[in-house]
Amino acid sequence: MSGISLEGVTKRYPGGVLAVKGVDIDIESGEFVTLVGPSGCGKTTTLRMIAGFETPTDGTVGIDGENVTDAPPYERDTGMVFQDFALFPHMTIDQNVAYGMEAAGEYTDEEIDARVAEMLELVELPDVGDRTPDQLSGGQQQRIALARALAPKPKALLLDEPLASLDKKLREQMQVELRRIQQEIGITTVFVTHNQEEALTMSDRLAVMNDGRFEQIGPPEEVYDDPDSRFVADFLGTANIFDGTVASVEDGYATVDCPDVTLQSTNPAGVEAGTEVSVVVRPERFRLRDASTDGGVGLDADGTNVFEGEVTFKRHLGSSVEFRLETDGGREIVVVRRSGLDELEPGDRTTVAIDAEDCRLVEA
Ligand code: ATP
To answer: Which ranges form a coiled coil (predicted)?
Structure first.
C-alpha cells in the first residue's frame, strides 16, 4: 500500500480556465481522504490528475514515493470508480471484474478466476458472476464497479462521486459498505463528493476545496468544530454566522461588535482590535436558559453570550430537534437539541446561551 502526494499542483485548461491553483497534500498509506466542495471548485480535475487522465500545468504528483506527474494512467496502478459505474454492458459480471487483470497480461486464468471470486465475496455478491450488468440493481452495479477497480490490486482507489446516482437510503447503506471494504483491505483512497454529509461521515480527513484551492484539510470533527474560514463553516453543516469587528482583545478572548449584538469569543493568535471577523456558532452548542436569569441580548455579567427571542419554527431530525429563534434584533438563530430536550414550541419566548469557547472566530 502506498501514499499519494501533491505538491503545488496546478491545472489550467486550454482556453484559460484555471481549475486547480497550486494544491499541496500528503495522503498517507491506507488513508481515506475526501475532496469536498461546491460544483466547479476543481475536485474532479484534481482526482483526474492523480489518475493520470489530466496532466498538471505545474507541480508534481507522487504515488508510492515515485514521481508520476508525466506517467500515463496505466502505469500508475490506481483503480477508479465513476458516478455512472461505467460497467461494460455486453460482458458478464465475471468478465467485467476480470477486465483489468486480463488487460495487464500478467496473470494466469486460475489466478484471475480466484481473484474474481474473492472480489465478488468482498462486495457480498458471490452469486452474480454469470449475469450481465442490466440484470443488477443500481447499488449492485456500483459494488461490481468497486470490485472491478480493486481486482488488479491497485496502489490507490480513486472515487469520483460514486454514490451520487443512488437514492438516499441506498447511498447511506453504500457509504457504510464502501468504508468497511476500504478498511478491510486498507487501501489508500481519494473520494470526490459535493455532499458534505458524506464527506463528514466517511473520511479520515477531508480537504475542503473552494475555487481551485484547499481551504482546509483535517479530520472531520476538527474541520466541523474549528473551521479556518467563513467558507468552510458555511459549506459544512449548519452554522450561525455573525459578521462584525473586533472591539478589543484580552487574555485570549475577543469582544466582537456585530450590528445587532456584542459577542465574546475565544481569539486565535494574530487577530487584533479593528479586524473584520465572522463568529461561527454550531447549532448544537447552544444551551437553553431560564429567561429570568439576565434577559436581553448580548453579553451577560459573567461574559456569556445570550440571545432572547421567539421560537418561529421546529422540526424533528430523528435523534435531535431543530429550532429557529427570531431575536428581538431580527436575527434568525438555529438551535439543535437532543430529542427529549425539545420542550419548546413555536410561539414560546426563550433565552439561549453560548460560551465564548464555542464561538469560533474566523477572518471575514
Ligand atoms: P463538479 O462537482 O460540478 O463535478 P468539480 O469541483 O469536480 O465540479 P471540475 O470538474 O474539476 O470541478 O472543474 C473545475 C473547473 O474547470 C470548472 O470551472 C470547469 O468548468 C473547468 N473544466 C473542467 N473540465 C474542463 C475541460 N476539459 N476544459 C475546460 N475547462 C474545464
So the answer is: none
